[in-house]
């Protein structure tokens, strides 16, 4: 009787333990499921959206986003004018980009999806002539360029820097102009350098100002836009073609090589005419785009690690900020370097376009001796 009672007691205890652990496992599984559902509902940091949102064009200057105590998001940005013409509705729409409420609402038959504006009615044809942040920043850069050059020119017209030592901003700009003249124009263009100095200086300073403005947080990466560098490359291409002479074209289509090699070399020389502006376009675009992407990636790593663990996020933050500051100062150097490279390559290609005549043989040596 005692043995049976002991067995019954052991079975009861074992059954109670199984019931308790089964309930605990079920409760634990249910508890794990709820946080996973909450985490799935919580928006995660999207590095692609941040990176491409910075390097691509947009309809506003966006600086930061923060949440209040209620969890509502607030955006600190400068909206820009949106100008759209609907071909189907025969209607011109002019309004502020803030009407879209950062893509949450539609306005006047249009809505914003990512960095683009699309019609609410599918298939509607329209023309977008809005003042995007790239356009606005180029206008600002152009105004700064004209204002700086006119202010300096007025000082020279009054004798400052001619009969007396340069003063103020002249001290910073004059060495740059001298550098472009002596290190870019004269060595590559010889005695004809004066004819091309206005263009080379305009290209150099326009690229430089846009590069420096693009390093301001919240600004647009204008030079990292392929359309911007494409136009600059085409303008340089036109200048190169109009600077060419008969010796250049004779060398291109009738190179002094054996007859068997001539067809191949003619093709190579002909293609090189178009690869020159292509090199200008891609080199400037790729270098300025890559620098901005690296900076945004380094900052994004803080939030990526923070999404895994707050300790990892805070621990990686000092390293990320240190590398970001280092790359930022490198980008300031690159801003000057890329402006110089574009102007210098343009001068090299222009110089090659009028080479071949006897008058131009000693131009490079004459320029060095001067």
Strand content: 5-15%
**Biggest sheet, in brief?**
3 strands, antiparallel
The rounded distance between the terminal residues' Cα atoms is: 123 Å
| Number of DSSP-assigned strands | 7
Task: Describe what this molecule looks like in 3D.
It is a single chain. With 370 residues, this protein is mostly helical. It has 2 domains: 58-128, no CATH class; 133-369, no CATH class. The chain has 10 helices and 7 strands. The chain has helices at 2-41, 47-55, 133-157, 170-189, 193-213, 226-242, 246-253, 262-308, 310-353, 363-369; strands at residues 60-67, 73-79, 81-86, 91-96, 110-113, 116-119, 126-128. A hairpin with a 2-residue loop joins strand 5 and strand 6 (116-119). Helix 4 (170-189) packs antiparallel against helix 10 (363-369) and helix 6 packs antiparallel against helix 8 (262-308).
């Amino acid at each position: 009787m005692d043995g049976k009672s002991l067995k019954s007691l052991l079975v009861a205890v074992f059954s109670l333990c199984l019931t308790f652990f089964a309930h605990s496992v079920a409760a634990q599984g249910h508890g794990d499921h709820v946080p996973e559902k909450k985490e799935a509902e919580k928006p995660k940091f999207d590095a692609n959206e941040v990176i491409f949102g910075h390097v691509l064009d947009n309809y506003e200057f966006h600086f930061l986003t923060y949440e209040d105590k209620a969890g509502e998001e607030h955006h600190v940005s400068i909206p820009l004018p949106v100008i759209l013409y609907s071909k189907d509705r025969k209607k011109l729409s002019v309004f502020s980009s803030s009407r879209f409420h950062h893509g949450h609402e539609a306005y006047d038959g249009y809505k914003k999806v990512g960095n683009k504006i699309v019609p609410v009615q599918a298939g509607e044809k329209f023309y977008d002539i809005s003042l995007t942040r790239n356009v606005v920043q180029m206008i600002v850069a152009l105004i700064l360029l004209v204002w700086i050059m006119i202010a300096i020119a007025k000082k020279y017209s009054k004798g400052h820097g001619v009969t007396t030592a340069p003063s103020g901003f002249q001290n910073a700009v004059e060495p740059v102009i001298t550098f472009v003249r002596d290190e870019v124009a004269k060595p590559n263009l010889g005695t004809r350098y004066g004819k091309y100095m206005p263009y080379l200086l305009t290209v150099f300073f326009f690229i430089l100002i846009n590069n420096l403005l693009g390093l301001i947080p919240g600004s647009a990466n204008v030079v990292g836009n392929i359309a911007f560098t494409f136009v600059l490359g085409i303008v340089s291409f036109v200048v190169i073609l109009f600077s060419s002479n008969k010796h250049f074209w004779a060398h291109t289509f009738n190179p002094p090589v054996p007859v068997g090699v001539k067809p191949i070399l003619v093709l190579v020389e002909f293609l090189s005419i178009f690869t020159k502006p292509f090199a200008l376009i891609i080199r400037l675009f790729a270098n300025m785009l890559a620098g901005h992407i690296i900076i945004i990636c380094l900052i994004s790593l803080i939030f990526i690690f923070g999404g895994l663990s707050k300790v990892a996020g805070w621990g990686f933050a000092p390293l990320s900020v240190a590398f970001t500051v280092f790359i930022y100062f490198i980008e300031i150097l690159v801003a000057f370097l890329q402006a110089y490279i574009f102007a210098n390559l343009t001068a090299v290609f222009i110089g090659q376009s009028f080479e071949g005549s006897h008058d131009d043989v000693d131009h490079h040596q004459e320029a060095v001796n001067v």
